[in-house]
Design goal:
With 280 residues, the protein is α/β, with parallel strands linked by helices. 42% of the residues lie in helices and 17% in strands. The protein contains 9 helices and 8 strands. Helix 1 packs antiparallel against helix 2 and helix 2 runs antiparallel to helix 3. The chain starts with a helix and ends with a helix.
């Protein structure tokens, strides 16, 4: 079982209970704001920590990655082009799947059997100076990267780690934007809501995320989300998110990611996403 399998199972279970799927559900409100599936995020984050994994194990970050990718699929972007994919292999160029689909059934089955040996669980994208593993994205052989999103999680030791996260994020943005100037770059930062009890560090996190989006060759959208660690082991979206500036909210983040990607893409691209956004 790969490291994403438990989240795949949780997502399938969630949509079966809802009687819908990420692709079929409405994504935009009448006011033009994305209708984010926060209960699914809470479920995935809880799955990540309830199996005994620590917040530092990477499991929490993978849960966040799967939710962000699911939101991109819900927005109408090609489910095969968004990674991590809901099914294995987690990263795969959609043209490969289209080729396999054009084959006769027996040959296609043989291709699917050997495909995992040539696919990857990680997406490594070449930047202007170095190759960077990108957590969530949208790409194809024909277009190159169109969406590149880095995700980070932090549950404690804010004063010690915030500066390091800022330096890493800034360098990664310059590296990726330098080679892919038309790609929409995002940075999604999930923090334990206990940071609010440390006003200086909370202010630092907000300022950090605002600065990361100021320059033209840095991030197009950044998000700061606070979560509560409940006593029963459940993780919940914190009411303290009301203290986060609107431009750093998850709603604003996904609106900007979708709108910029559609604006920068070819007019005939992302047909379903444009239809959902009511762009002609």
């Amino acid at each position: 079982m790969d490291s994403y399998q438990k989240f795949e199972d949780a997502i399938v279970e969630h949509w079966e209970a809802q009687g819908t799927s990420s692709v079929r559900r409405p994504y935009w409100s009448d006011a033009g704001e994305p209708l984010l599936e926060m209960p699914l995020l809470e479920k995935l984050l809880t799955v990540a920590v309830r199996d005994g994994s620590s917040a530092q194990s990477g499991s929490l970050a993978k849960a966040l990655d799967m939710w962000v990718a699911e939101e991109l699929r819900a927005a109408g972007f090609d489910a095969q082009s968004v990674w991590p994919r809901l099914v294995r292999p987690r990263v795969l160029d959609p043209s490969v799947l289209r080729f396999i689909g054009s084959l006769d059934a027996r040959t296609a089955e043989k291709c699917c059997e050997v495909l995992p040996r040539f696919a990857s669980a990680n997406a490594n994208v070449l930047g202007s100076t170095y190759c960077k593993q990108v957590d969530v994205g949208l790409s194809s052989w024909m277009t190159g990267p169109e969406i590149l999103i880095s995700t980070k999680t932090m549950s404690s030791a804010f004063g010690k780690n915030l500066a390091n996260r800022f330096e890493e994020a800034y360098g990664d943005a310059k590296n990726l934007k330098g080679r892919h100037p038309l790609a929409t770059l995002g940075f999604f930062f999930l923090l334990n809501s206990s940071i609010v009890d440390e006003p200086r560090n909370f202010s630092k996190a907000i300022t950090m995320l605002q600065k990361l989006r100021v320059e033209d060759d840095a991030y197009d959208a950044t998000c700061l989300m606070l979560v509560d660690w409940e006593e029963d082991g459940r993780l919940a979206i914190s009411p303290l998110n009301e203290k986060v500036p609107e431009e750093l909210s998850a709603t604003s983040f996904f609106r900007e990611i979708v709108d910029l990607t559609l604006l920068r893409g070819a007019p005939e691209s992302h047909e379903l996403a444009r239809e959902k956004r009511r762009l002609l």
